[in-house]
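Support reply, case 0932

Customer input (verbatim):
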Amino acid sequence: MVGTPTIERRGLLLVLSSPSGAGKTTLARRLVDADRGISMSVSVTTRKARPGEENGRDYTFVEEAAFKRMADGGELLEWARVFDNYYGTPRAPVEAAIAEGRDVLFDIDWQGAQQLSEKMKHDVVRVFILPPSAASLEERLRARAQDPEDVVRRRMAKASAEISHWPEYDYVIVNTDLPTSMEGLTAILAAERLRRERLNGLTAFVRSMQAKL
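Our regenerated output:
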């Protein structure tokens, strides 16, 4: 007797973007800690590691020449220059993950989100994180105490331009408080995992069921 066909799910790419300091990195880390079905995409970058960052876990740190070879060789799904440094997403591990039904989380800016959407449109779910106010955004940036004053000013000046891209995203979360934002992000992920087009074998499963009715 032939068994009922199984339903396997294609993985998705969950993109979080925001102006620097709005909280997307904290949300991303909490989601990965809470959900074993999703893992963080490890970007490659030319910037120097900050205190506490580990090569291969937080980022893969490379020299500019190596980064450009990867970009020219088609090894990156997306890449951009941000504040005098390059950031990019390696193609191979991402494509392998979604083919195996595993989800990948991205902490990238709007430029990266656009490039990723162009190349993998049907796999991408985009969420934009907004701060509750301009004042809170500045306070968060200054509280980091890792960036010099000129960098803080540059980030604040660029925040308005980054926020202008919010209409390009599928969902928007105003990060007023972390627990509520996490609830919203978890709900988005749960709903997107149930989209019909991500469920491979669903048609065969339903036909098999109907044949036995």
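We compared this against your earlier run and they match. Two observations from our side: Residues 9-41+102-211 form a domain with the Rossmann fold fold (CATH 3.40.50.300). Residues 178-193 form the longest helix (16 residues). Please reopen the case if you see a mismatch on your end.
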